[in-house]
Amino acid sequence: MTRPQFTIRAFILAVVVLLVLYCNSGVYRPLRAPNGTRSQPVAFPNSQTTPLGSYAIAAGELPGYTGWGRPEFTLAGYFTAATPKGDTISAGDPYIIELQCRGHADCQTPSYFYVRAYGPAILTGRIEARGKGGYRALLYPVDPGVYTVEIVITISNPPPFDVFPLASKAAPILYEGYLLQDFPTTLTVLPNKMDHFTKLPVCNAADLLNDRSIYPHERARWKVVDQIRSKHHQSNTGDGTQVTFPAYQQSYNSLGVVADYQFHNCRLLVIPYRGENVTFNPFLCLQEPTHFILIGDSTMRIQHQIFQQYLSLPEMKHHSLTFIELYGGILRCNTYGPILEQELKVELERNSKSQAHRAVLFNTGLHDIHRLCGTEWEKDRRTYLTDPQLPCVEQYRRGLADLIHVVGTLPAAVKLFQTTTAGWPKYGNFGINWDPRYGQGLPLDASFVEYFNTIATTLLESHPYIGVVDGYWISLARPDNREIGPRAAIGPKLSHPGIEVVHAMVRIWSMVVLRNLCG
Questions:
Q1: What domain of life (predicted)?
Q2: DSSP codes of every residue in 177-216
Q3: pLDDT tens track for 417-446
């Protein structure tokens, strides 16, 4: 690098630092429940006293590879990367990376990837295949600062989705999780008009529902709002020298980074939680008793548990909540339609006082992918599938169509489908009791989830009365925030989002319901 080039880059970086420090952001002080433990991070008060630059994740501060078994073969080293617009952009502009695979016969066939960037915020991006071994990665940062950008190849040269489930004796196709050559790299985002630092209006339902014209990750991000190593962090649990399991779950005693899911053009309302000092409860707009019906697998069960805590407040007692679990997926649960319809009929009669308002949130996905596409479930599938030879994608399409029909017949004012969360993240996931003897093969990868979500949203296009809320992109960005138990069991860590992510998911669909019922 010549001296003039070095001087120009140094000057740009100095300007970035000064401008970023000039722009102020909200300080987050963890709330404390009556027993002295931190409550769940459902809301982040807006203050204007802490420099934005104080909260930025440094390179290497989030985990990458953390110890699962992975194969030697990978195409990672055959890729080169180029940034047509350079590695310095203005906030709000897309960051584009052109990728090209050369030098191996498998370069001509599609591969799967994972994209993440972190700094003042945690972002995920998407990969567009452009043919002949070429791809384009896109990220949408809006917070100024310096980001670490990672592109990981998860599976090199996988077979098509419609050949799953594979034959029982077929060799497993194992997750790789290797950084592409030229990564990680650094992105510098310069301040733009500062308009995203002003107080934003409260989100409308349309702001929160999925829209085919824009991907969810293009309109929201995980903003870093607290960092334990920052001098601005303030502990609410004594002198901060102790370690507790709840604080580990909430990142205070583990990664030390707290993030809030924030939309670019609007803000989510604070959702009350028992033990928090919340001055305004948005659910008070519901004058009539409301029956909330949640249908789904274990991730929906976790949301049900959180929403139960909301409804435990005295002013919420006249509302009711039902959870119907689809353990094992839609087809395995029932062979399905009549049983689900009967169970829903019973619940509607039991909660007949809630005739005025009903809201339904439903999903089926993770269990379906595992049970329908996984080789290890071959014998189990024969007990409930009428045509077990069909590809798993077609089985899912048929089962979900039946579920959509059942939900469509419900007398409910609001009906929402939540896209399936990005399950089985390995790159970036930490604190797992990995078994070093095995890798993890397809279909247990987020690429399958994205494909199944495409099937779901395509089916729902002919049902405009059912809205779609995001569960995929919001969780894809956060492999670091997963459910963890005292024994660090691998199942929950790979299957379920963590506290921050699940609370954000609940806040989003709750607000859509309130906007529809209250205006």
A1: Eukaryota
A2: -EEPTT-SEEEEEE--S-GGGSPPPBPPHHHHB-BTTB-G
A3: 999 999 999 999 999 889 999 999 999 999
